[in-house]
Amino acid sequence: MSGHVPGILVILGWIVPIYFLAVNTIYAGLLFSASAEMWRHRQEVRGERLWRVLSSPVAPGISLLAPAFNEAATIITSVQAFLGLRYPNLEVVVVNDGSIDGTLDILVRSFDLQPIHTIYWKRLSTQPVRGLYRSRRYPSLIVVDKVNGGKADALNAGLNLASGELVCTVDADTLIEPDALQRMVRPFLSSDDILAVGGTIRVANGSVIDDGYLLNCRVPHRLLPGVQVVEYLRAFLFGRLGWNKLGGNLIISGAFGLFRRAAVIDTGGYSCDTVGEDMELVLRLRRHGYETGGPHRVDFIPDPVAWTEGPSTIRVLGRQRDRWHRGLADVLWRHRRLFLNPRYGAMGLIVYPYFLLGELVSPLAEGLGLAVIAASVLFGIGGWTYVLLFFLSAYGYGLILTTTTLVLEEVNYHRYEGALNRLWLVLWALTENLGYRQLTVFWRMRGLVGWLRRRGDWGTMDRRGLAISRGNDG
Amino acid sequence: MILEAGLLLSGIAVFALHGSWLWWYRHRTKEDLAAARQALTSSLQLSYVAPEILRLPAALSPRLATRLLTEIAQSLDGVGRRQLTLVARELGVIRNVQKKAESRFWWRRLEAARVLTLFAVDDAVMLRLLRDRHPLVRAQAAEWAANSPTLAVIEALLELLADAERVSRFTVQDTLVRMGRSAVEPLGAYIGSHEGPGVVAGLLVASGLGDARLLPAALARCRDAEPDVRAVAARVVGRLGGHDSAEALIGLLADPAPEVRSQAAAGLGRIGHWPAGPLLVPLLRDSHWIVRREAGMALRALGAPGILLLRRSLTDRDRFAADMARQVLDLPERYEQAMVI
After folding, report:
1. Regarding predicted confidence, which is higher, A70 or A214?
2. Which listed residue, A9, A244, B1, B181, has the most CB atoms within 10 A of its CB?
3. What is the DSSP string of A333-383?
């Protein structure tokens, strides 16, 4: 047996770098596609005046759905920010999902809510709704009070009640830029084939926020949130944008997405039995579109932005990444008939296989690569050759793509002004692979094991809230 | 490895230096832009182009000059905008943009269309761009058209109601609504004479315009072969019509398409045609929720006769009808306390 070990190590020593070369080459293709998309998008919006959407009687109505569970600390600021969004025909539906910290009482007092009676079609079954309220001061604000059922259940309750042609799903603590909805609605005005649109989410840690508005964009000076800034830029500015032309997206973040309400209801709303409910919905919507010959495009546009608080402790970040990977595994398994199925076009032939082999399996490959390095050193095989191969293919190539993403962000948006901010971004991009990335490999593998063992919980996400931040306090 | 390191260092260098370059560029042009802005805004009070304005091109590049003028134009209207247009002509900005309007690249034509829209010039160029091959350019030209409600422009817009691209259709619809009375008669003629997807778009515009002169065209479309057309026509009739239009809506209560039945019921409620009450009651048993809801709300809107019919429906053998009647009767008297989705 021990005689075969060197042979196995040699084989694995080649397979793993080849895997990463292949994955990173796909990333490079995505980056190229994303650059072209970004250029095209910039040409389309340059000099555009959004006032027309603001005041048009034929612009589609949007219902913004914000599920809230125990958000007493931040709910007032969040709802005020939602009500301040610049969109003419906007309805804000806050779903109080059985909070036990007085969230509803705060809402009732702060927004002068009064109980209302209504006739609405409960097409999606949810936990019982205890009451409906509308604000006397802000008639476009509706609050649904219901028995706790989880985020997906709360969103379904909101969908039943919403009246807009489009629904925007957000997390209650997400900060959305005031003109984000005007930008998000553009694809729906451009094409009848659009089912849903996702926008960019950025990490707000370290930035200056006051009263729910982002005043000054800054890169955090702490490792965990800092690296997440780079990760999110990479994920959204090339990971999502690149797929627009290559088969469309499979994920729209639950923190910020815009959907055709009728399509979501027709396909049964959000699934309550998965932790990847946002990806599961998108996949189901797209499948339904392909199967019925209806709309099936899901686009991403880079310039409407929402800000979220990234976890700042290892424990909470680990739970989040664990949950994300469990969700990914679960959703890909549920929709496994898409795999290489020509009936679903590019989604089945390109996008799904990539997510399966390039995203789901990648922590295994990376973990294996690290194990091979350790074993090679132990057995004295291959020397530095394997180490170099692995690092060049897995990390070096990836670092180039990350840096290119930073260039894209800088040239097109320039949100992080000042040399110091740029220096921090470069620092976090360089240090991402020195421990942080390996930690995420561990968490994602844990998530995969957890899925295999049928764990279905969300874990606890501790948040400080984004109501006020003086910047770089974490 | 050398290649990777080289690419990495190049990327970092571009990233780091771009911001510095941008800062330097803004700093360099800041004073010139401020002086130009001051000179331009002062010149808006005059009825001629002041000599110092003509010296601006020496200080600003054509791109910056165009950017500055379009930035100021967005805040102006009326006399101020006309004066700025005069300045733009004298500086050659309009001429440069007109050349771009003939470019074979869609993004240059789009840029030209946006600038020409701001300065509200060049009917001939913009009319041509209404027929451009790129939908965004057509849409931008349609936006320009809102300020030029001539018959030729309106007719060109009406043809675009059947545009395959939604962005163009949306802007055309919006522009026609903004044009108001000027568009009413041509729109009515269009709805009456055309077929196809443009008719639905035209009827939606009619709904937005709310002009009673469009009622005959909408009434005629209530008999259209397409259910989408009939549904929107019923909506328009409900908004614009009176008791003499009720007959057409009553005829649609038995339509095979649920969206048509629901719009017809809603229209009768809006008109307040109480003799239709007994004809709305059977719709409380309709298999589609939206039809039942609209029938219930229409009965409520008819006042006492409708309320009486709803109360009788509380004991209807069809439990869906009884349930809808109960829900409608449970709504508060003050409508603003009720919320109908």
Report:
1. A70
2. A244
3. HHTGGGTT-GGGHHIIIIIHHHIIIIIISHHHHHHHHHHHHHHHHHHT-ST
User: pLDDT digits over B191-250, tens only?
Assistant: 999 998 899 999 999 999 999 999 999 999 999 999 999 999 999 999 999 999 999 999
ipTM of predicted complex: 0.81
pLDDT at residue B334, as a whole number: 56
A308: β partners: A203
Would you state the torsion angle of the CA atoms of residues B34, B39, B45, B48, taken in this order, to the nearest 10 degrees? -150
Place of tokens 């040699």: A10
Long-range contacts of A46-52 (CB under 8 A, 24+ apart): A46/B111, A47/B70, A47/B111, A47/B114, A47/B115, A48/B114, A49/B74, A49/B114, A50/A179, A50/A182, A50/A183, A52/B143, A52/B171, A52/B174
Residues from chain B that touch A392, judged by Cβ atoms under 8 A, are 1, 4
> What's the per-residue H, E or C state across A204-263?
CCCCEEECCEEEECCCCCCHHHHHHHHHHHHHHHHHHHHHHCCCCCCCCCCCEEEEEHHH
For the range A280-283, what are the long-range contacts, defined as Cβ-Cβ under 8 Å and sequence gap of 24 or more? A280/A327, A280/A330, A280/A331, A280/A334, A280/A335, A282/A196, A282/A249, A282/A250, A282/A251, A282/A252, A283/A250, A283/A331, A283/A334, A283/A335, A283/A338
- For residue B127, which of B159, B94, B95, B104 has the smallest C-alpha distance? B159
Q: Does A453 touch chain B (CB under 8 A)?
A: no
Neighbours of B11 (CB within 10 A): 21
Tokens of A271: 């699934």
Show which of residues 47-86 on chain B sit within 8 Å of chain A, judged by CB atoms. Answer: 70, 74
Query: pLDDT-based confidence at A474, cuts 50/70/90?
Result: very low
Which of B205, B289, B338 lies closest to A118 in CB terms? Answer: B338
Q: Which of B334, B333, B298, B341 is nearest to B325 (CA)?
A: B298
* Lookup: tokens for A207: 């930035």
Measure the CA–CA gap between B131 and B145, rounded to whole angstroms. Answer: 13
**313-332 in A: which are within 8 Å (CB) of B?**
none
Which of B14, B173, B338 lies closest to A58 in CB terms? Answer: B173
Residues of A in contact with B173 (CB under 8 A): 58
Whole-angstrom distance, CA of residue B225 vs CA of residue B227: 7
Q: Could you tell me how many residues make up chain A?
A: 474
Chain A: residue nearest B7 by CA?
A400
| Chain B residues near residue A133 by CB distance under 8 angstroms | none
Residue A88 CA: distances (Å) to CA of A55, A83, A301, B338: 6, 11, 21, 22
Q: What is the pLDDT of residues B41-73, one digit of tens each?
A: 777 776 666 666 666 656 677 788 888 888 888
Per-residue pLDDT at B339 exceeds 50: no
Amino acid identity at B146: A
CA–CA min distance A166, chain B (Å): 14
Rounded Cα distance, A272 and B141, in Å:
47
Q: Taking 60 as the threshold, does the pLDDT of residue A64 lie above it? A: yes
